[in-house]
Specification:
Phosphoribosyl-aminoimidazole Synthetase, Chain A, domain 2; 7-stranded mixed beta sheet; 5-stranded mixed beta sheet; homodimer; 60s Ribosomal Protein L30, Chain: A; alpha+beta
Chain lengths: 345, 345
Amino acid sequence: MSSTLPKFAFLDPQIDMAHGAGGKATRRLIDDLLGPLLYGTDAPLLPDSARLEIAGSQVLATSDSFVVKPLRFPGGSIGSLAVHGTVNDLAVSGARAQALLVNLVLEAGTETAVLAAELESLSEAARAAGVKIVGGDTKVVEKGKADRMYISTFGIGVPIPGLDPSPYRVRPGDRVLISGPVGDHGITILLARGDLDFEADLCSDSRSVLPLVEALAFVEVGVRWMRDPTRGGVATALNELAGDTGLGIVLRDDDIPLRDAVRSACELLGLDPLHIASEGQFLAVIAAEHAEAALGVLRRTPGGADSRIIGEVREQPSGTVLVANSYGSSRVVDMLVGDPLPRIC
Amino acid sequence: MSSTLPKFAFLDPQIDMAHGAGGKATRRLIDDLLGPLLYGTDAPLLPDSARLEIAGSQVLATSDSFVVKPLRFPGGSIGSLAVHGTVNDLAVSGARAQALLVNLVLEAGTETAVLAAELESLSEAARAAGVKIVGGDTKVVEKGKADRMYISTFGIGVPIPGLDPSPYRVRPGDRVLISGPVGDHGITILLARGDLDFEADLCSDSRSVLPLVEALAFVEVGVRWMRDPTRGGVATALNELAGDTGLGIVLRDDDIPLRDAVRSACELLGLDPLHIASEGQFLAVIAAEHAEAALGVLRRTPGGADSRIIGEVREQPSGTVLVANSYGSSRVVDMLVGDPLPRIC
């Protein structure tokens, strides 16, 4: 043991909030520490779900932890978010959630009413999303050793016929779609904390995107890739795609749907809306010849009226996400760096 | 909303440590709050795993959270414990773990070396148990909002041919077996905290019990029921069985395997060893005519040399666990009440 080489390339001496923000630091934590130590050399391309073959059947599994603060916010709460996050990770992996397991870590002293409200929120969201809660586990830690409650959800799903999204299927010329406005969830959480001298009529978009994904599958528009732009936002999700494929992604600034409240809050705070999390939208890459059909399907599906084609995939600039404005110039949008919005999910 | 009846019978105004201890308070939390709100009226009999039919195949799924303190202790650490706990929950449900997902909630400021050690411990335990870590999620909370790290693991497994354990299969006359000494894990954790003026040469028994369970399955001894006596110990696991079946369980005090260090620590602290958690043992109920054969199989399997038949199932006293001593008297052993040993897993 005296002179073994380090087994990982992660050099940060300790974990800080940025490692949980979903951006560059999270990617480094996964690529340089969790990957080599936990997943071995055959680490996956950070998929939202793991695809398993069990007893001859394809099963998709995903897991998420939720530490959102505050627990309740306009448009949702940690309970519903825990269901939507897991159902959506499966949906963008091309799977319909069948069963959820729910783990709770509770802080001693948490009021029963607060816990009961979140259990009801979990249950209601699961019923609405058509998924059954089949098990779980509960632990309690001392007062001051958690923040009322953390929830871990685990989802198991089955492949949706007609969908097999993968970064490897993405080709230059493909179009990039989004199912609705970006950043509603992240800015809602920030405002709900009351730290800002700024008010807005804004709700989290937290919801199941499964009906929209299933609508796309049904009409066979050839979905190449999907991702829900949660932590790190659209910019991080698309940078990961660009990095994984070596392709470039060019978005048109004017086409990115954005509510005024989100735009204003981002201007005030110096944040890029493309770094702000959504919890009820998804990105899809669709072959060019099917893009208008896909858009039509999404727009006709309840909850999809604000869908847009926001850009396209190109050969160049390799591994990069560009946003072009109407004046003919463009800017590079990188993954999220640092953590301007801690604990948004 | 003004005059609806309460939807649950849980009357404690807040959550306290006892609700996480695995005993009576945990059972009330599950039966009176989580059950009605989360699982609906068709709540399961607290099984260790959920049995799902996915695409025509039987799949078992289980989930656990780990908040053990300290993170490292003689014989194991939170990382290996997280693997063993989940593999064992599946094993005693009659399933072989195929895949694990691992969620981390990390406290900002946790040293990378501490995290890396647990990732290695997870990975090594998974390899030894023959299960693959296929995914997970990582969140970070502020300093003071967790205790370095909490781990949630989710396991998916497939049924082991020849095993279909269920409380419904237990009959009067069946024998109760245990795979080794009770309470090693719980007392090890207590001593590792250094709160006691007591030292002992004791290690956690944390390990995968899958090889022992598979050995039983292979010889077709007719396993009726299994459970790993973790939080709440042997007494709680058997009281749950007695409660679920309405049968009585009578243990013989002299036959319960117990290390001297565990006996001494329990005497010193006024604890019943039957309430102390094991993390590498399991209880099995076997038809009387197969009990000696089952014992022989366990004892010949590596890690099973200390297996014992410790008692039997009877018609009476209904719903009760009795321990009979060699002087002809017996005592009722109830589920764990309160939480003498917080955060042991």
